């Protein structure tokens, strides 16, 4: 599976962006897919994920209520709708795919990674 993330950019605080992650290959629907982010000088942080088996969803506390993750298996694509953005959301956002069947998998459990897309939120 190869992943391609897109949709990043620069936005003012309170604004919105939608990230997309498109996968090549077959059987996209069986994968658990997730978003992680990495801010300058910090480690990679879990943002949200959605399982392949039942579509269970989980969010980091820091984005709960502001971000929405969803997938369109017919298009081999996962999305992250980001609303009410804050300067603390500034980071490179990565999408990833794994065969683990549960939510909140650790980054080490994701086998496939996209290249990352920069999100910058100005105050």
Q: What are the defining features of this structure?
A:
50% strand; 123 residues; 7-stranded mixed sheet; mainly beta; 4-stranded antiparallel sheet
What does this structure look like?
With 123 residues, this protein is an all-beta fold. The protein has strands at 2-6, 9-12, 17-24, 32-38, 45-50, 57-59, 67-72, 77-82, 91-98, 112-113, 117-122. Strands 2, 4, 5, 6, 9, 10 and 11 form a seven-stranded mixed beta sheet that branches. Strands 1-3-8-7 form a four-stranded antiparallel beta sheet, with no helix packed on it. A hairpin with a 4-residue loop joins strand 7 (67-72) and strand 8 (77-82).
Shape: globular
The low-pLDDT segments are none
Helix fraction by DSSP (H/I, runs of at least 4): under 10%
Strand element count: 11
Name the quaternary structure: single chain
The computed structural class is: mainly beta
Radius of gyration: 13 Å
Please outline the major beta sheet. 7 strands, mixed
Question: SSE string, helix = H, strand = E?
Answer: EEEEEEEEEEE
Strand content: over 45%
Distance from first to last alpha carbon: 37 Å
Mean pLDDT comes to: 95
Number of helix segments? 0
């Amino acid at each position: 599976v190869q992943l391609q993330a897109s949709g990043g950019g620069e936005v003012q605080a309170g604004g919105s962006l939608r990230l997309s992650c498109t996968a090549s290959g077959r059987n996209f629907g069986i994968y658990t897919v997730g978003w992680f982010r990495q801010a300058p000088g910090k480690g990679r942080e879990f943002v949200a994920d959605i399982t392949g088996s039942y579509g269970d969803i989980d969010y980091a506390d820091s984005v709960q209520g502001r971000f929405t993750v969803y997938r369109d298996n017919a298009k081999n694509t996962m999305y992250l709708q980001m609303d009410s953005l804050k300067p603390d959301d500034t980071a490179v956002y990565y999408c990833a795919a794994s065969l683990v069947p549960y939510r909140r998998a650790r980054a080490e459990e994701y086998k496939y990674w996209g290249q990352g897309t920069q999100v910058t939120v100005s105050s």
